Write a sequence for this structure.
């Protein structure tokens, strides 16, 4: 029999709700006209064009406490990758409400932050004064955008798992080559989500490597690094609808939010490492299909640890708030070492 933890409780209130925030492509999306599932469904094979950014799509079931469902009905997200985390949370904290926060992952994390505000407000209605957040991958950027707008209002603890604070070079590869399979956690190539659709998503632009990351790991033309001006011009020309706005979002995170996350003892960071991970690329801008991938084993196969550690800043926090796991990106949601660490944080 598995050990359960005593529920965390805010003084004078009920048990503290737990909200899980998945990464990009991790939320089911539904057609507003009939409520039928679109993303990762049979409907998508016939209506892929509806994933374009100009078409509105809905999310469902954010109001459902997963504790109230039998295990087989609990939300699993993209390819059920969230299911193990959700199910184990329900087992370990049986008295605490557990929510899977779905959001329109096409949109900017700033838009999703407003939806997260609504989710937090709903979760608090009948329970505690605060919530705990567990954020995987781009879900951590959504939480960061929430803090930029609302501060730490109603947040007791935040656990970031594999968050690309400084972006992912896989998105650069996607931009250059059109290789859909390079999208983090992607089954987009199988389901026919086109390169052109993805490149118009504000969320994808926000996952490009940051200026801070590129200052250490720039793109290369052969053995010659692109200058910052050349990289900026290339990204701006390639993503004219979204790049400038994404840059402003990045600057706000660096100036306003990342210093708060590093300083605040409520924030914890789990980072995968030891897996072959793309660090940067060498390519000919005129022959984009001719690229050389520059890799290392300092990442989780999708997010380089230099990005996941905010260019190394997280490494100075010490083991109480920062932990490395020999794990691939999605495995951070299910390996015992990671789960025990997360559960220990939430139990305090």
């Amino acid at each position: 029999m598995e050990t359960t933890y005593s529920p965390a409780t805010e003084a004078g209130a009920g048990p503290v709700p737990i909200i899980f925030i998945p990464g990009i492509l991790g939320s089911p999306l539904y057609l507003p006209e009939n409520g039928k599932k679109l993303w990762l469904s049979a409907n998508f094979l016939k209506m892929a064009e509806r994933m374009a950014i100009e078409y509105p799509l809905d999310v469902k079931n954010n109001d459902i406490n997963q504790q109230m469902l039998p295990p087989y009905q609990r939300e699993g997200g993209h390819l059920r990758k969230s299911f193990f985390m959700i199910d184990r949370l329900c087992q370990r904290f049986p008295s605490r409400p557990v929510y899977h926060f779905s959001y329109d992952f096409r949109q900017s994390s700033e838009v999703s932050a407003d939806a997260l505000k609504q989710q937090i407000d709903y979760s608090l209605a009948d329970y505690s004064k605060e919530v705990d957040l567990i954020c995987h991958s781009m879900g951590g950027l959504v939480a960061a955008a929430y803090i930029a707008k609302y501060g730490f209002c109603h947040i007791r603890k935040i656990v970031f798992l594999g968050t690309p604070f400084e972006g992912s070079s896989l998105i650069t590869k996607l931009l250059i080559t059109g290789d859909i399979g390079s999208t983090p956690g992607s089954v987009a190539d199988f389901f026919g989500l086109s390169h052109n659709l993805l490149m118009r998503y504000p969320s994808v632009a926000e996952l490009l490597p940051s200026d801070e990351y590129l200052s250490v790991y720039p793109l290369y033309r052969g053995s010659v690094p692109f200058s910052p001006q050349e990289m900026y011009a290339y990204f701006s020309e390639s993503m004219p609808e979204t790049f400038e706005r994404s840059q402003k979002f990045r600057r706000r995170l660096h100036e306003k939010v990342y210093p708060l996350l590093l300083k605040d003892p409520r924030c914890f960071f789990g980072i995968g490492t030891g897996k072959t991970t793309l660090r940067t690329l060498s390519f000919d801008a005129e022959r984009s299909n001719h690229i050389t991938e520059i890799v290392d084993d300092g990442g989780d196969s999708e997010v380089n640890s230099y990005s996941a550690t905010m260019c190394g800043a997280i490494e100075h926090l010490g083991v109480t708030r920062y932990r490395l796991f020999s794990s691939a990106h999605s495995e951070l949601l299910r390996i015992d070492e990671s789960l025990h660490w997360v559960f220990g944080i939430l139990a305090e």
In short: The mean pLDDT is 90. Strands lie at 18-21, 98-100, 131-136, 155-161, 220-221, 224-225, 267-273, 275-284, 287-299, 322-326. Residues 243-263 form the longest helix (21 residues).
